[in-house]
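Hey, weird one. I pasted the Major facilitator superfamily (MFS) profile domain-containing protein sequence into the form twice and got a warning about non-standard characters only the second time. First submission, copied straight from the form history:
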Amino acid sequence: MEQGSQEGKGSRYATSCSIVTSMISIIFGYDTGVMSGALIFIKEELGISDTQQEILAGILNICALVGSLVAGRTADYIGRRYTIVAAALLFLAGSVLMGYGPNYAVLMVGRSVAGVGVGFALLIAPVYSAEISSSKSRGFLSSLPELCIGIGILLGYVVNYLLGKLTLKLGWRLMLGIAAVPSLALALGILAMPESPRWLVMQGRLEKAKSVLLQVSDTEEEAEVRFKDIKSAAGIDENSTEEMVTVSQKSSGEGVWKELIVRPSYAVRWMLIAAVGIHFFEHATGIEAVMLYSGRIFKKAGVTSKDKILLTTIGIGITKVCCLIIATFFLDRVGRRRLLLLSTGGMICSLAVLGFSLTMVDKSHEKLLWALSLSIVATYAYVAFFNMGLGPVTWVYSSEIFPLKLRAQGASIGVAVNRLTNAAISTSFISIYKAITIGGAFFMFAGISVLAWLFFYFCLPETKGKSLEEMEMLFSKKSTRNSVTTETNSRQNI
């Protein structure tokens, strides 16, 4: 009975740590959601142009690109835990500046500082969760940051609706400034969490790493197996103790860029292609256009009242969170690859329908109720399909495929591409739909989604159930497609 009562204790502790870590993603998600509504009021008070709105919306992602590249090396140098603290403090500073916001220039500075924090948060939350979890629960725990982003976006939409009723001068400043409070709380709370055992092994702190593994594993045997695998992946002899690890075996991230970019192995090259590709397609398929400019989309479709627009965006937030919750429970059961293909297929259909309905509204000289309804349904369907696959899988996949020494900085390249693509969409969407119509813009996203489906089918092997230390072998196959076939055949032979 006593053994049975202890079962799952380590997994529960690892889950608690991942939940706390993922709180940084709620703050980022809130900033994304609240800005979609705040832009309406900022434009009204400060009289900024469409171009200035695009820049204000997109500057966060440009700065996040820089932040993610810096965060990779930072996470290797000071550890995963203190990197999360740095992200929280950056959010704190950015929120205070945006909440003060006397003019456009100060808003831009605050948004830029918060953007660097976003880069830190997007990299470190899934990496920490992946490194502290076991292979059987890694998909669930690594997807929690994406779920928390969805919760944050929903909170942002709700706050938009509630604070939008305040005076013009006060409302949007409170929307942007209140994120400083949870940022400070997280910066203090994160210090009570353990460091990543894999990072501790890279530093040669073997006894401390083993101690953490005993905390986050269900049994001593599981902790011992994970400890041996991590030491082997780090190039440390299985029988080494902390005193026996030489300084040359410890790592602060030096030489990683050479192994990633200049002279990568076959496996690492495919890992990098997979990480960059999945991060690119996550935003190239148009999710940021929907999340950030949903108000404009619904206005184009025929919704005219500000209150109704804000309420409709709350529906998007609810859809996103519900589907992310579903996805977190299926990642370790259905698998990453299958969810990606199903998700992207649904996105293609939804985007095509949305493009068609918005085109009909655009060309009609009278209000089309059926096209308005179809636009809203297609938008919700697109958000649902995205968040049941591509959204959460992107962060799980890119945080788990790289070898231990390359993980933080390899994942940072993927995040940098993610933020660059996000910035490109968020800063150009208004210009794109003015050039090719709003319906044409979503037909374009549907076409990109077709390319995404083909990339996922041919280039991404299944990682479900594999330990982090097995990934290099998985990507060492002659092709990722052959890897899947070989695995299937071997199971049939058994």
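That's the output from the first submission. The warning seems to come from a hidden character in my clipboard, not from the data itself. The CA atoms of residues 80 and 128 lie 6 Å apart.
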